[in-house]
Each structure stands twice: as structure tokens, then as C-alpha cells.
Amino acid sequence: MDLSVVIIEDDPRYRHSLETLFTNTPGFRLGASFGSAYAMLQDLENLQRAGREPSWQLALVDVELPGINGIEATRHLKKHLPALTVVMLTVFEEPALILEAITSGADGYLLKKTPAPELLTQLKETASGGSPLTPDVARTVLSLLRANTPKGIAGKFFNSASPTKLNLTEREHAVLQSLVKGHSYKQVASKLNISIDTVRTHIRAVYRKLQVHSVAEAVARAIREKIA
Amino acid sequence: MDLSVVIIEDDPRYRHSLETLFTNTPGFRLGASFGSAYAMLQDLENLQRAGREPSWQLALVDVELPGINGIEATRHLKKHLPALTVVMLTVFEEPALILEAITSGADGYLLKKTPAPELLTQLKETASGGSPLTPDVARTVLSLLRANTPKGIAGKFFNSASPTKLNLTEREHAVLQSLVKGHSYKQVASKLNISIDTVRTHIRAVYRKLQVHSVAEAVARAIREKIA
DNA sequence: TTGCCTATCACATGACTATGCGAGGTTTCA
DNA sequence: TGAAACCTCGCATAGTCATGTGATAGGCAA
What is the CATH T-level fold of the domain B3-147, as seen in this structure? Predict the structure, then answer.
């Protein structure tokens, strides 16, 4: 039984490659293909108005669609065709975007960079109730949860460092603020009227307290946790 | 190269079955086995005090441990052995518990009911950077996100200043994401399987497009504007 | 007095970063 | 066909970063 796929993707090149893929892959059948969610929803409406249902079993929906975006399109699809498996596609691994997709009711989420064989495997799995996420996306989801979930209460016998209580000194904080602005050590030194070696000393302390090892990590933490 | 596994599991029967499994499965080697997190941490501390490191590459940690629970043990392991892959085990599919495990920094999460073949496959995948979650757990995580994410967030991403329209190419975006994580050029190169000079080329393009001149500025912009 | 914390500063050095400049291959489009 | 975009890669190099190690001085509390 071939899996009938509907593609909703505005990029002609990618859409055509998907069409070719599903046309030529055993186990799949190209049900329909649209360059916009609007066109797809019109088609759906026309079919249903004629008392018919599309034969689609799986929908591949690009998130970044012109007009009606992929997330809205997904909501429509899940509402009107609840049995349809909807898998969303995008270039980006943006956590907020994944979150949006998840709340839209999508059954799966794939990155466009996913190679065809893995994409096909993943689609089959998702359609048959298997894993809704590729490893990459799963890791992103985990990161999302880690970033947004307060630390749980756990035993205290071997209490690890408590990163939420940083105890940065005034000077350390000033140095960190300068780093966040993109200042070099030399610029920090000039701005705070101290030597570059003193800057280094403070930065060492900041990194130790933040448990980071690079300016990138320090800046990321500072901004995300509103430290500086 | 056999994957050296450390087991931390209080149930003797399950622990012994795991010991047998890893002793007899090609590709795995039993590195150590403990009935409690306390015993493991003592051993780790003794080793490190002697200036040595355990040879463990993968840890299987039961969540429900007496004394120091698996979550706290995981935190400790990730802190002292950052390269160690930690997979947590439990009988429960309790979403809050999964969430707790995720925030502890575990690399994977498995249910004890997972049959041995799948367990081994999953461990290999997790250890080599593959999927951190079984399909069951992924679905639980998605349900968790769906249940806890207010619908009001819908559309927020697309209402922002369209940060994705910076015209970063897929590759440039990937590189920027790595920078945000604090990866060095060398690490980015390794992660993306390209040369360090290619990394530099992409970074040049990213900086030009973001109009920045340092990794700090790039990271700051990326996080603040949800670019990466 | 001693110990701790903070701030200041220094020397040393290997690794890393940012930038200039150059090149080749593939795909798409006018 | 040529240009543009993208990806890949290279050489060169000055400047910068991260870290180890050491030191002084002042303030404060036990």
C-alpha cells in the first residue's frame, strides 16, 4: 500500500525534487503538490465541498510559506483531516520554531538538510506511529526543554556548583558587560582604566564562575540568563 | 573499539542482566558496575584523586537510586566527565521525570521495558551522537511540550522582525549555531565535516551579514534576535 | 596575626581568531 | 555564455585569547 503524499513547498527546486523522490520511491505515491498553503487549502475546500476527501495520508509542509505559513496550514490540516500525518519541514533548527510546530499539532518535524534516505525512513516511521523526530531535532527539543525548565530539586550530598547564584563581583560584572558588547580585552582595559592583564584576571574569574571556556559561551549565558 | 559502559543500578537482578548483556555483546565492554550512585562517585573521586580517569565512555544510570538519585548523579557525572555519554533508565514514562532527566544534562533517556536489541541500538546511537530518545519517549516529550505551551505563543515567531530574513545560507546558519554553543573553529570544522578554512570563510560571511566583528557580537545578536 | 576576598599587575606561551587574498566546482538564470 | 550564488579549500599573518603561574596591597573577620 503506497503512502500518498501531499507536498506544500514554495521553493520550486526543492518541491520538484520531492515530487521526483516520491514518484520514484516504492512505498510512496505523489498525491498532490502545491506551491503555497493557500492553493492547497483551496483545493481541499473544493474537494470537501464536492463531498469528497483527498486521498492524502501524509503531508509534507514547509514552515516558511508565503501568505499562510506552514504552521497555520498545519492547523487547518489537522482540523479538517485529523487522520492525516503532517510532517513539517524547514531549513532551520530554531527551537522556537520547533515549539510552534509542535503546538500546531504536527506529527513530525524534519530539517530540509535531511538526506533523502533518512527523510524517507523518517516519514515512514512517523506515518506508522514511529519516532516523530530526527536525532538532530530531538537534540534541539531537549535543548529547548533544558533552557526553559527550572532545575529540579535533587539530593544535596554531592551538591554541584549552583550556577544560578553567581556571585560576580562588581568588577567581574563590568568586564562581562563589556564582553557582551563585543569589546576586546584591550578595549575593556581602556574602558575600565585597568591593565589588559587585570582584564584577563577578571575574565578568568568570570569564566570560572560561569563554568564556561570561551567568550561565546560567556556571552550566551549572560544574555540568556540576563546576567549582563 | 568496544564501548566501555558503567552501570549504576540498585536492582541487583536488572544490574546483573545488564552486566551480562554488555559482557556478551560485541561492541560493548563492561567498564564498571555499581549498586548506588554513592559508590560510583566514591570510585570516581578516588580515581581522580590518584590523577587517573575512568575509561568509561557510556553510563547507564537508573533514575530511582537510593540515597543520591540518578538525576543528581547524572549532574555530577556531566560535570566531572563532560565527554561521557549518560543515558538514564527508568520504568516510568512520567513526563515530569523525563523533564527532570533532561534538565540534568543526560544525553539520552530509556525505559527499562526497552527490549535488549533496541536498548543496544539506542545506546550505540546515543553514544555516537544519534537520537537521544526512543520513539516512545519522543512522543512523551512532544506531549509534554504541547500540554505546557500556551496557545498564545502561536504566531509569535512570524510576528517578530523576521530574523530569518538575514539571508544567511543554510551553511552559514549552521556555523553560527555552533559559534553560539561556544565551539571553536576547529570544533565547528569537525562537527560539520569541513575544513577549518571553510569554517573561516563561512564565518566571514556571517560577520559581514550581521555586521559584526567578533564572536561575542555575533553570539549576542544571534541570541537576542533569535537568529540561532 | 592569619586567612580570605578583591583588585591590581606581570610574564610566558600555545592555540585561536579575524582578515586579506586567491582558487575551483556546481547550479541557476538572464 | 557569463555572472552570481553557494560551498569547498588554501596560504599567510598579525593580533588576540585562554590559561598557568606568580606577586603586591588593602579591607575585613575570626
Answer: Rossmann fold (3.40.50)
